[in-house]
Amino acid sequence: MCHLEKPDMNQDRQPPQLLLRFFRWFCHPDYVEDIEGDLLERLNARVEAKGKRRANWFFFLEVFRLFRTQLIRSNPLEFLPLSKAYQSMMLATIRRMKREKGYALINTLGLTLGFTVVSLTQLYTAFERSYDSYIPNNHEVYRLEEKWTRNGETEQWAAIKAYLSPAMNRDYAGVRSTRLFKPYRKGMFRVGEKIFAPDHILYADSTFLEVFQWEVLVGSETGLLSEATSIVLTKSIAERFFGDEDPLGQVLEYRNRTFRVSGVIKDLPKNAHMKCEVLLPLSFNIRRWSERNLNDNNLYTYIRTGGVAMEDLSNQINKQLKHIEGYQHDLKSAGISCEIIPVPTADIHLEGKSEKQLAENGDQIAVDVIQSIGWFILIMSAFNYINLATSRQFNRSQEVAVRKVLGSDQLLIALQSFMETFLFCLLATGLSSLLTFLTVPYFNHFFDLTIANDLTGLLENVRQISIIALSIALISGIYPAFKLATIHPLRSLKLNAFYFTPTNKGKGWFSMRNMLTCIQLMVSAFTILCILIISKQLNFIENKDLGIDTNGLIVTPVHRSLDTEELELFKSKLYENSQINSASTSHTFPGRRFPFLTFKFPNLNRSGLVQPTEQDGSIWMRTLIGDHDVINTFGLDVVKGRDFTKRYASGDDPMEFIINEAAAEFLGLSDPVGETVVFTYDVEVPLEGKVIGVVEDFNYASLHNQIEPVIIFPSDRYQMYLSISFNSIQSNRAIRHTEEVWREQMGNVPFRYSILDDEFKSHYRSESHLKTLLSWLTIISILIAVVGLIGMSFYSMEKRKYEVGIRKVLGASVNSILRLNLKEYIRLALISNVLIIPVVVFFGRSWLDNFAYSVDLDLPLFVSGFVISFFVVLASVSFNVLKSTFANPTEMIDHR
Amino acid sequence: MGKYQLGEFEEVVMLTVAILHGEAYGIAIIEEIEKRLNRGVSIGSLQTVLRRLEDKGYLVSQFGEATSVRGGKRKRYFTVTQSGRQVLENTKEQRMGLWNAITDVSFGKA
Question: Among all residues of chain A, which has the CA nearest to that of B70?
Fold first, then answer.
């Protein structure tokens, strides 16, 4: 033991150099020597008594306990490695900041707001643009979409037919492809005795990992779905299913079949355009599909090019297309063509507008608008700084004059003013980083995002944005700095006033300051008008008569088919509660997509009114398959003919169809009742029937889309959802009643319902985000404009002090002076509002183009925008203007 | 201007400086306090008090010789000034005055 305790003196007595340097840096120079000696003596004594590590720890504590106001350097500037001249300039700046607290506060707050807005909007837009960036080398991953041209009209489908992917794997070496299928009906998973209903289930080819390269947490990387009985879970769903147990090899039951967990993948991040919790092998399902189904646009086909140029690849695919099964017959018909369009996965979220998307997407224009407003607000706060800084330099004219007399050159004076800018920016950057840091969690929560959830990501973002913001702000310091440097020393000293060397005379009313203010006003006018347009459109959406009654409607998925008797029993039990109006099963429901199915109109074909697009003479139409209560449940209005009779169509009876007005128009029929219709989709024997009624057009999707022809018929083959209409959705007892009936009929399948109104609202997610964000941005931009105007009015009133005083002495009335003083601002407000109109019209139009039904950009909108910004201007300048108008003229003219 | 009242720690430090009599530098003072009063003192808190007392004029200091033990740094020796002695005596008198005013009954002696 002895040799261990004998430390090498030279090595072990070395004090921690970093701490020592820190101490020497902060300690008052008069005390540094003896205290350092004390520290070292203590350290040595402790090393001997307690060993090196503990001694060093004590040393650390001692050094930090020495960091006290009485012992550190008295002049904080001495901390900085600056020469004396700069130290003096710095000191003058700090003293000025202390003296003019209000000015310092306004300037710092303005810049802080600008920086914070830019950080937050950048974080938001960066998140919206980062979709699918989590996929390694995501620029190689494309989704293949079908673009159809039928009789001159084009439509693009996000999902395509089943055949392309196998053909690709066969024909193109190096290119990996996989197909995804999203089941219409959410299934139930039975794990032991427990039942789960995950929200996001996908069926995939076993090659899915080769394309997406998702991170596998448990299981082998290859062939996770190669067997028809394997299943892959995400981490969080595996935890929900199995708790702490090892999920690998666990058995669970789905649609009466047994699956074995073959792997666990990492949860998909929120910025993934698809949602997925459970992956099942496509082969399990595809075998059950009939020939017809394979021909449908059901499969989302993704490829990884593996370095092959996508352009060549898509040219080859399109050349080959007519040889690929499933695409052959369509292309023979005249006037119909199909093209495969590769869409980069990274573009799907913001630009994906094709039919049948995997999930709700974002909006490119909204992201662009928010981003540009963020930058404009930063520019506004920079302009503000310029305006305020130049206006406050009144108080410095004498100081600068003295400096000049003492031999300072212009550059040095400019440098000093620049230093002030730098200090303000530094302060604002620090504050805004803190503010961003504090607001990000709320921001995430509010918009359901995960921006910069980890500290390092956030810091990285803040750092980048700070650098940009800081450099912009520093550039904005150039103007006031050189402006100040041009002060004329003699006149400034003599007159005790701000007097520039007369180089910028005769610029008229449209000076630099006016221009800056005008641009600021334009930005706030822009945000005001944007928010007016968006509110108007959203109000319009909320109040538009959708043609259906979504009030008091709930929807619940049905996880297994009920036969006619079961369903009738179920419904009759529901009706026992008087609050329940009506209930119906259906294949889809308003607010969700209505699928396209095939129908034949034999009479119309013959007369040439309908051009068939399929070989068997059918056409595709959007379809709602319900039961006989479906019209009543969704509150549709029958305008011609009658509702369905209370029975289900069986093989022998003729079918009954109801179409909407758009369909009647599409078919070219003024009285469609009695027209023969044949349902040809996925049936062995086509089902023939008659149109028995016409319903008023109703919005089954969001107002982004035009109302299309829809055909409705009852059938018990497609029960996916049960919709129940209540007298009032607040009726808790009726919902409880429903739940009881459900439990009786469905056993232990959980009852989970959604409110139809919410389903509709989910279509406007990106719009309502835009509205909330813009409201905040508008408030902030108005605030910054107000601060700028206050600063500017102060400056110009100070400049006109003598003029106003003399006018008053000569007998001008308060009214005339008020008019004179306000004229300038009213003119600025007017000009900025007029100049911004084209920009607003451009952005407004392109945003409103997202909607099939939208409001107009009319005159009242622009007038109310002007009135708002007019009052903002008036309110912010009135204080200084009134002060100057009512001041005693003797005080104004008197200059010591 | 009332007379300056010494704080408790200030009084301890001044008394220790007086005890050490010419040998009072940072570490020596700390060790003496730790030995006599059995309480830990950090260099930071001691130095703060020493500077304050020096500012008041109760202590003066001068540098001693450099030694190798302390990395070649000189020690700063403190001594009590005349006014320092005055204020210590004042403090002591005040305390004694207070003690003398206490009767046995005050402590609840029966």
Answer: A37
Return the percentage of chain A with pLDDT > 90, whole number: 3
Min Cα distance A459 → chain B (Å) is 34
For A282-409, strand residue ranges (E) read: 299-304, 336-344
User: Which A residues, 45 through 104, put their C-beta within 8 Å of a C-beta on chain B?
Assistant: 45, 61-62, 64-68, 70-71
Residue A343: closest CA among A180, A135, A142: A142
Residue B76 at interface with chain A, using a CB cutoff of 8 Å? yes
Q: Which residues, listed in sequence order, are joined to residue A506 by a DSSP beta bridge? A: none
**Cα-Cα end-to-end distance for chain B:** 43
R_g of chain B computed on alpha carbons: 17
Residue contact B48–A62, C-beta within 8 A: no
pLDDT of residue A78: 61
Q: Let me know: does A596 contact A296? Beta carbons within 8 Å.
A: no
Consecutive H or E run containing A721: strand A721-726
Beta-carbon contacts of residue B4 (< 8 Å; ≥ 6 apart):
B56, B87
Burial of A209 (C-beta count, 10 Å sphere; 0-12/13-18/19+):
buried
- Token output for B8: 């408790």
Q: Which of B47, B69, B74 sits opposite A44 (nearest CB)?
A: B69
Which residues does chain A have within 8 Å of residue B45's beta carbon, measured at their own beta carbons?
65
A65: nearest CA partner in chain B? B44
Residue type, A444: N
Residues of B within 8 A of A61 (CB-CB) are 42
Residue A845: per-residue pLDDT: 87
| Top-confidence range, A481-485, A726-730, A769-773 | A769-773
B43, B51, B76 member nearest A42 (Cβ): B43
Could you tell me if A145 and A157 are in contact, meaning their C-beta atoms sit under 8 angstroms apart?
yes
B74 touches chain A (CB under 8 A): yes
Q: Is B56 on the interface with A (CB under 8 A)?
A: no
Distance of CA A455 to the CA centre of its chain: 21
Question: Phi then psi for A689, rounded to 5 degrees?
Answer: -170, -170
A62 contacts on B by Cβ (under 8 Å):
42-44
Distance CA A714, CA A843 (A): 45
Q: What is the ipTM of this complex?
A: 0.85
- Least Cα separation, residue A63 to chain B (angstroms): 8
Distance CA B5, CA A408 (A): 51
Is there a contact between A68 and B26 if contact means CB atoms under 8 Å apart? no
- Asked whether the beta carbons of residue A65 and residue B74 sit closer than 8 angstroms, the reply is no
Give, for A706, the enclosing helix (H) or strand (E): none
User: pLDDT by residue (tens digit) across A762-786?
Assistant: 777 777 777 888 888 888 888 887 8
Q: What is the DSSP letter of A78?
A: G
pLDDT digits (tens, 9 = 90+) for A190-218: 888 888 888 888 988 888 888 888 888 88
pLDDT tens for each residue of A502-518: 444 444 445 666 777 78
Place of tokens 């508008």: A778
pLDDT tier at A711, thresholds 50, 70, 90 = very high
Q: Is A693 helix (H, G, I), strand (E, B) or coil?
A: strand
Residue A4: predicted pLDDT = 41
Residue A41 has pLDDT above 70, yes or no: yes
